[in-house]
């Protein structure tokens, strides 16, 4: 029943917001104020950039990759391979949620980034060049970093059951330092103004607080709920239609669509595996070549035991040997 109500509510919102043109009306209210703030913040950005140095360029450009597509491509599969299935599922869903909310707000407000070339913009990577094509508020890097590092800290403290005050202080300090460097880096690189990173910080904290209240409910639904696959497929398509139309085309919708597909795949397969509807396959090189004759014989193979505590998300029994292969071309 709750699935029908939630999907119907989103569908109703799509119809009502389209009929009354809520996106355009909200944009006309907030966009002028944000633009004024971006212009007002320009002298401060230039002051930060007056400390220009190659070391800082490399440092902040490297740190900006932490919540980029290449980072997710390596980080999220690693969580699964390391046996932390629950963390992997939750991190995937949380990052997809952050990506959707952040990009929706970006395209609703449609506020520009700091003026270039007045402000020096450093786009050392292809990912950063694509990010520069998006609107500015809120800073997705700031928002995603708050949620990623905050949830990681919550998980580690609960997984280790460490309640020592010194450990809590050390973990919180590291998270604050990391987030602070990301915030400073976004301004230094000329990618965001102060109002952008402040909005990313506030929205990130709100999303993180909300997620910490519902993450167990969401995970229980994914691994043991009813109609998980049909619900997520329907939700994924409805969210595509619910996405706001920006003032000018940006890559934000494409980024959300890609992450939406990842989240859908994770939810579906996690549900099938936990409900014992999907077998664990052990594949050999000959099996792979039978399905894909074009593959070479150069395979990197990773073996691990899925015999973990339910807290980390993998079943205790039966004990399963899993093989995954990555083709090296």
Strand order of the largest sheet: 1-2
So what's the overall shape? Answer: globular
**Largest sheet, strands/sense/barrel:** 2 strands, antiparallel
Total number of strands: 2
- Mean of all residue-level pLDDT scores: 77
Strand content: under 5%
Domain Phosphatidic acid phosphatase type 2/haloperoxidase: 88-212
Subcellular location: Endoplasmic reticulum membrane
Organism: Thalictrum thalictroides (Rue-anemone)
GO molecular function, one term: sphingosine-1-phosphate phosphatase activity
Describe this structure in words.
It is a single chain. This protein folds into 2 domains: 23-274, no CATH class; 285-327, no CATH class. The relative contact order is 0.14. It has helices spanning 2-20, 22-49, 54-63, 69-81, 85-109, 126-131, 140-160, 165-188, 194-224, 228-242, 252-274, 285-291; strands at residues 299-306, 320-327. The chain has a two-stranded antiparallel ribbon. 67% of the residues lie in helices and 5% in strands. Residues 277-329 have low confidence and may be disordered. The protein is globular, with a radius of gyration of 22 Å. It contains 12 helices and 2 strands; from the N terminus they run H-H-H-H-H-H-H-H-H-H-H-H-E-E. The chain starts with a helix and ends with a strand. With 329 residues, it is mainly α.
